[in-house]
Design a protein that fits this description.
Keywords: Behavior, Cell membrane, Disulfide bond, G-protein coupled receptor, Membrane, Receptor, Transducer, Transmembrane, Transmembrane helix. By secondary structure, this protein is mostly helical. It has one domain (about 25-215, about 295-390): Up-down Bundle (Rhopdopsin 7-helix transmembrane proteins). It has helices at about 5-55, 65-90, 95-130, 130-135, 140-160, 180-215, 220-250, 260-265, 295-335, 345-355, 360-370, 370-380, and strands spanning about 275, 280-285, 385, 390. Strands 1-2 form a two-stranded antiparallel ribbon. A two-stranded antiparallel ribbon has the order 3-4. The longest helix is centred in the first third of the chain and has 51 residues, at about 5-55. The chain is globular.
Length: about 400
């Protein structure tokens, strides 16, 4: 056949070929999003079980991760399926009431995720900058109260503007956020940019404190404090010794004042322990615990674990910003310069779905970067019960 005939045949078949490609692309997209939903639900359920059952992850601060995982599970169950149906059908096939609820929950869960990350950053900062005073206040009750405050702040940011949304009536409805300039600026600043700036500033401060600790390790500080405490204990012991020795001096002035005889003259109820120092043997009251190497090593291990976990959470925050920044930046451009900065619709939708992908990434990050989570996930998934693996 001639070249003209071949070209005519290709042109005739091209619509069918394009249609087939579009159908395959749509099917692949639906399968990928469905897989993402399943991974989000399963992965975050594992995170919740790991924190609640693993001894190494039972710190009160990890309740923030439980709440964050719950928000991601809600995104995967209440938001993504309806977003996928809306994308595949090209219109909103559900009621207008559910559209309002869906939009409100969508903004709420996204806002709560970044506010959770802000709260986690502040918790890290306080635990590093004020380890003693904040450590005493860092109880499960206080963390739960902070989580409630996080959800309330998210609701305050998310819900009020949604009350002004326009509702479509009849026919094939569209379910979209308000495109008015004030709403776009309010939602992007309140739900993303302001919390993001707070997170970055807090983590810069955490980095500065960690750098100071690297220059002067905590172990050296503890030794210096321990030395000062020992001197204070010894100086406090002197007046008490003189009080006990005074009656003996009245009865007999020939009693020598050497360390060994003072030890025998002191009642055993108050001074049962002695401590060897560079200047000799010192008395230590019963309430003063002897200095040992084990608590110091435990403290160092705890500090190292806090540093590693701070790094993991920094990665979580970085990934969150990378996933959601393109969407919020392009969405804010619609308010700043709607005519000149218009982004192609396919690219905007791509940014939209990349943001949702963040919900399934946190369990992956925990697995890659944190040994405690790896052990907990392995124990949950590979539990051996009477010789059978589940």
């Amino acid at each position: 056949p001639s070249a003209h005939t071949v070209c005519r045949t290709l042109r005739a078949s091209s619509p069918d070929t394009l249609g087939e490609i579009l159908r395959l692309a749509t099917a692949a997209f639906a399968i990928a999003i469905t897989f993402m939903m399943i991974m989000t639900i399963v992965g975050n359920i594992l995170v919740i079980i790991a924190v609640l059952t693993s001894r190494s992850l039972k710190g009160a601060q990890n309740l923030f991760l439980v709440s964050l995982a719950a928000a991601d599970i809600l995104v995967a169950t209440l938001i993504i399926p309806f977003s996928l149906a809306n994308e595949l059908q090209g219109y909103w096939a559900f009621s207008s009431i559910w559209c309002e609820i869906y939009l409100a929950l969508d903004v709420l869960f996204c806002t709560s995720s970044i506010v959770h990350l802000c709260a986690i950053a502040l918790d890290r900062y306080l635990s590093i900058s004020r380890p003693v005073s904040y450590g005493a206040k860092r109880t499960p009750s206080s963390i739960k109260a902070a989580i409630i405050v996080v959800w309330l702040i998210s609701a305050v940011i998310s819900f009020p503007p949604l009350l002004t949304l326009d509702k479509s009536e009849g026919g094939e409805e569209t379910c979209e956020l308000n495109n008015e300039r004030w709403y776009i600026l309010y939602s992007t600043i309140g739900s993303f940019f302001a919390p993001c700036v707070i997170m970055i500033l807090v983590y810069v401060r955490i980095y500065q404190i960690a750098k100071q600790h690297t220059r002067c390790p905590p172990g050296k500080k503890q030794k210096a404090v321990a030395g000062r405490n020992a001197n204070v204990a010894a100086s406090e012991a002197v007046p008490k010794l003189s009080e006990h020795a005074a009656p003996a001096q009245k009865s007999s002035s020939a009693i020598p004042q050497s360390d060994s005889q003072i030890l025998s003259a002191v009642p055993n109820k108050e001074y049962k322990n002695t401590m060897a120092t560079s200047s000799g043997t010192k008395l230590v009251s019963e309430g003063t615990p002897p200095i040992q190497g084990t608590p110091v090593s435990r403290r160092k291990a705890m500090v190292n674990r806090e540093k590693r976990f701070t790094f993991v959470l920094a990665v979580v925050m970085g990934v969150f910003v990378i996933c959601w920044f393109p969407f919020f930046f392009s969405y804010s451009l619609q308010a700043v310069c709607p005519e000149t900065c218009r982004i192609p619709d396919p690219l905007f939708k791509f940014f939209f779905w990349i943001g949702y992908c963040n919900s399934c990434l946190n369990p992956v990050i925990y697995t890659i970067f944190n040994k405690d989570f790896r052990k907990a996930f392995k124990r949950i998934l590979c539990r051996d019960t009477k010789g059978t693996f589940f």
